[in-house]
Fold this sequence. Notes:
homotetramer; 2 domains; 11 helices
Amino acid sequence: MRTVNAERHAEKRAEILEAAGRCFLRNGFHRASISAICAEAGISPGHLYHYFDSKEAIITALVEDRLDNAARRYQLLINVDDIVPTLLAELERYLREEHSSGFTLKKMMLSDILGEASRNPAIAALFTSFCNKRYRYAADLLRKGQASGQIDPSLDPDATAELLISTADAAETWSIRNPDHEFDKNFAVFRTMLERLLTPPARHAAG
Amino acid sequence: MRTVNAERHAEKRAEILEAAGRCFLRNGFHRASISAICAEAGISPGHLYHYFDSKEAIITALVEDRLDNAARRYQLLINVDDIVPTLLAELERYLREEHSSGFTLKKMMLSDILGEASRNPAIAALFTSFCNKRYRYAADLLRKGQASGQIDPSLDPDATAELLISTADAAETWSIRNPDHEFDKNFAVFRTMLERLLTPPARHAAG
Amino acid sequence: MRTVNAERHAEKRAEILEAAGRCFLRNGFHRASISAICAEAGISPGHLYHYFDSKEAIITALVEDRLDNAARRYQLLINVDDIVPTLLAELERYLREEHSSGFTLKKMMLSDILGEASRNPAIAALFTSFCNKRYRYAADLLRKGQASGQIDPSLDPDATAELLISTADAAETWSIRNPDHEFDKNFAVFRTMLERLLTPPARHAAG
Amino acid sequence: MRTVNAERHAEKRAEILEAAGRCFLRNGFHRASISAICAEAGISPGHLYHYFDSKEAIITALVEDRLDNAARRYQLLINVDDIVPTLLAELERYLREEHSSGFTLKKMMLSDILGEASRNPAIAALFTSFCNKRYRYAADLLRKGQASGQIDPSLDPDATAELLISTADAAETWSIRNPDHEFDKNFAVFRTMLERLLTPPARHAAG
DNA sequence: CATGAATGAGCCTTCATTCAT
DNA sequence: TATGAATGAAGGCTCATTCAT
């Protein structure tokens, strides 16, 4: 009995969050109104407050959710042999998916979350924590690669991780910057850039 | 008389725009109120409408102003001999300035402008035009560098330009992502990355 | 079975009424919410409506309950020999109790009931009926006292009753008017005032 | 220029306060809505906030206004020869006026202010300050009377003042308690009570 | 050029009440 | 008997904008 209700509650909550996400995507965090979110979720304005304490709470919950989901993808490829190729393949897969799906929820969120993080401490905390997770993951991967000789040992793994992540995130803005951009050509240079950066000089010179 | 008035008008307009910029920085485009902007600018709400038709118009004018200013800096280094070092020096100077000044107007604006561009066609147009200017400028520079043998001729200049610009913009978000980040270490890797990308393979192997 | 249920029903109803009383004390009739009352009573909002038709009904029932309780105390001392001393002793006991218990339910209610009575006919009816009961009781007592020579026969018993009751009620507001008031000193004058009013002039002059 | 605007502003503010007073009289502090007050004042909801920061502020300002007005009446009779008769005459005039005007603003306010003072610190402060002013005034008068032999010297002036004021205030509730009460008869006993309390015993015995 | 009074739609939120379970 | 999901009107308040002065 209890569990059914709790489950239903969580389900409904998730539904509202999805609806809110669509509204935020269309209008931004602060121009999306509670009543629009309710309409999108098919509930009454009053009822929303059984699930969330405030609009703030919705924003925070949604950002947390999106960020957690995104962070989870990074945990997947921890044990691989060919680090650089795998990383690039994974990045390509991810960016291509984002690119082909037009204005994705995720994409839009990143810009807006960055803006919001400048002013909203709760969002700032979520975002820095999200970045830290990814930084640590990437740095670990780089260290492993350096240990196995696949990655230039002279690179500072932490700084390189920060650079890699921010650069990859920036790739999500290509289409906003230039609606006619050619993804394949851009990604080709992106790939070259990372290969030349990460590959140990010896190999590089050899290759 | 006319011209004096016109000058005064332009000055006042610029003042208001500055005031609006400070408000938008603090609260974002949609949470900054007209009355707050008026208070910041020291004018009355009614009077503001002698200078701008609407809040929308203020946002658009401000974004245009910021973007024009930013684009203008790129025109400066068009004729240089050592392209890569000059470019990197210029980038370092710029990013270091942004970094040391905390939450700059410019920095904040980039995140918010990106978010706004997703939804506001006027802002989107300004932003893509801004990026295009920078893209064209960077691509020209790259072509020049390729002609003079300073830059890897196998790189597609347009795609490389897009990559370079978006990557450089991303560097402005380092501090939001990790408040404790070490700029110098990050920039060192950033510099290495661009050097390895742009330098012709021959030289690179040699160097 | 029926009676058991009826008893249970009455008990639960009384419990809810007590909970409502605590909420009204804290927040007033119109700022105390049904859900707060439910939380205080440990029941669900839906269930509350098995016991009361509306919030109005709760207010009315509570006021009726409080007023009935208060009126009942007056029935006790109907047959006494020394009317004035007994009355004063009883009054002192009552006021001292109210005073020492801080913001009592009863105290708060009187102010709020008076305010509510100005606008809510149902409450007005309850309150005038309550006052009438006390008036009649006091007037009877006074008449008895006049018959036995203990009370000034020149006083109009009905008017005196009204004056006595309203004056005694006013004593409950002393602490709201002056949080630092000294109850003993105030009550001493209060006692003097009533003794001088009620005692027959002959005795008074003699005493 | 300035002064005209400032005057107009004050006038409009006072008008709104009057309108709010009428609404509060009809519905109480917490059931009177801002939009009802605006309708009563003939202004738009938004405009009200040019004059008051919040509904709270309106309540506080109104209570302060009413209380200040009421307190001011007490300053009038500071130098009189026949203290007790003058006091009683003044009280009679005041109560009769209140009584004859039905549900006066002032009357209603007293009950509601008392209720509000139990929970709202701002109102509590205003009310205790109001009572203190009256207490001090009455106590001064009593001391003067004791010095000139017109008032029983054995009475504690402060405690007597508190008793007098609260008892007089209670007289304003006579009509709520008993809509059919006969003011003249009640006031006659009220007068007798105060005369017997205040007159020095010697005189009293003599009279 | 400059003011600030005035508007009214819309915002987020609360609340008494109902109803399916 | 008991729950709590669900409603929708209303609440206090903000805001971009207009207009008389």
